[in-house]
From TrEMBL:
InterPro entries: HATPase_C_sf, HATPase_dom, His_kinase_dom, HisK_dim/P_dom, HisK_dim/P_sf, Sig_transdc_His_kin-like_C. Residues 248-458 form the Histidine kinase domain. This is histidine kinase. The keyword Metal-binding does not apply.
Length: 461
């Protein structure tokens, strides 16, 4: 209860109302003390009127008048003459004198606070102006015990009333917060929890109905989020089903194309000139189809296996890549050069690193061949204090803007006609599995360069 929004609001409201009442209490108690002293002066003035009416008063009657006034003696100044109107024995010396004619609010608050915290019963002199202009001033002496007791009694009553007011106020605010804020927020939370359990159930989508502007905006934002998420989940489910179907089709199609590839090998040996002329084109078409199926199957896996990291001589891995690609460019004016230092050893999975560099070199080779111009592909590498780097650069025509925008996006980042862009997407995923990065350093008419960055040590840069 206390940890809830409404519970904490209840506690804070009570505390703040009590604090406000305390701030009111201090000037209030000062005003009470002033009224108390003025009342004693007025009573003393009324008692002195009896002496003005009859110059001779019995001692018993004088003592009774002073007791009713709550003072020990009364001095009245009339016509610049001080007259001791009524008097009785004072039990001790006068400790303080207070002139109410000149006292401001701060003085009254200071004197009231000092009296409230001083438990000693003292004799004080109080000076004030007579009521109804019955003289120049009136002065009385009195004890502080009754004054302090009256102040404490008044203060307790004020504090008790303040406590009642604060509790009632806090309870009403508690109910208001429960109705205006907590209940709508709880409704939003319940909707979110219900939606999380069954996102496909349309009944879990919130229907904005809050009257508070901020809550209404939150509900509308949640509605938009739930709508977009539901559509995304439906699309994801459809894509997953489509991906499963494509993987199955690609698997079976790859087997069929592999068989067809065996037949084309025999066709190439035919003596028929037309067959010999058409066979290479057929072989290339089937080879591209097999490559597409293999790439689709590779990307369609849930995830690539985690790399087995070992210290690998990089030059040997790149030699295998260059030897494989040189077979494909035997009749083309494309040179592939391995400039990896023989003593460079990197921390990587050799099989996965072979696939990454192979994809980059193959993409560069295909771009150069498509440009119908001689070109150069160079693989270099080196090391920094915190990482190893491998660079694959070419002298090709550069990447088109569309390919740059979707460089590592599968089925969108293809450069050559008929390409799928799976090679770069798979390569980027493999490098990321090493804790590294694959990025495009630059591209343009002077050529393109990709850089692989592999972390040293624990894999952090």
């Amino acid at each position: 209860m206390l940890n809830s929004l409404s519970g904490r609001f209840l506690i804070l409201t009570t505390v703040f109302v009590m604090l406000a009442e305390v701030l009111i209490f201090v000037p209030s108690i000062a005003r009470f003390r002033e009224d108390y002293l003025l009342n004693r002066l007025e009573r003393a003035q009324i008692a002195s009127l009896a002496l003005l009416a009859d110059d001779m008063l019995e001692a018993k009657l004088e003592a009774e008048l002073l007791e009713n006034a709550g003072v020990f003696n009364v001095v009245l100044r009339r016509d610049e003459v001080r007259q001791l109107m009524l008097s009785s024995p004072i039990p001790s010396a006068i400790s303080e004198t207070y002139d109410l004619r000149m006292a401001g609010p701060m003085v009254l608050i200071k004197d009231a606070t000092a009296r409230l915290f001083n438990p000693d019963d003292q004799i004080i002199r109080v000076i004030g102006a007579p009521v109804r202009e019955a003289g120049l001033l009136i002065e009385v002496t009195m004890e502080t015990g009754p004054l302090r007791s009256a102040m404490i009694d008044y203060g307790l009553r004020v504090l008790a009333l303040s406590a009642v007011i604060s509790i009632i106020t806090a309870f009403l605010l508690f109910l208001a917060v429960r109705v205006v804020l907590v209940r709508p927020i709880k409704g939003v939370v319940d909707t979110m929890q219900r939606y999380a359990l069954a996102p496909e159930d349309a009944r879990g989508v919130i229907q904005p109905n809050a009257g508070v502007t901020e809550l209404r905006e939150a509900e509308e934002a949640l509605l938009m989020l739930q709508t977009e998420l539901t559509q995304a989940l439906k699309q994801r489910e459809r894509l997953a089903q489509l991906g499963g179907a494509v993987a199955k089709v690609s698997h079976d199609l790859r087997n069929i194309l592999t068989s067809a590839q065996l037949f084309t090998d025999r066709i190439e040996g035919s003596e028929d000139p037309l067959v010999r002329r058409m066979a290479p084109k057929l072989v290339n078409s089937i080879t591209r189809a097999v490559s597409l199926c293999e790439g689709t199957l590779a990307f369609g896996r849930a995830e690539e296996p985690a790399p087995t990291l070992t210290m690998v001589p990089l030059a040997g891995v790149i030699d295998d890549v260059v030897a494989s690609e040189r077979l494909a460019v035997a009749d083309a004016c494309v040179q592939i050069t391995n400039e990896i230092p023989e003593d460079l050893v990197v921390r990587a999975d050799p099989e996965q690193m072979f696939r990454v560099v192979m994809n980059l070199v193959r993409n560069a080779r295909q771009a150069l061949v498509a440009s119908n111009k001689p070109g150069q592909i160079t693989v270099t590498a080196g090391e920094r204090d915190d990482s190893w780097w491998i660079e694959v650069r070419d002298t090709g025509p550069g990447l088109p803007p569309k390919a740059q925008e979707n460089l590592f996006t599968p089925f969108q980042g293809g450069v050559r006609k008929g390409g799928t862009g799976l090679g770069l997407a798979i390569s980027e995923e493999l490098v990321r599995g090493h804790g590294g990065t694959l990025m495009l350093k630059h591209t343009g008419p002077e050529g393109t360069a990709f850089e692989i960055c592999l972390p040293r040590g624990d894999g952090t840069f």
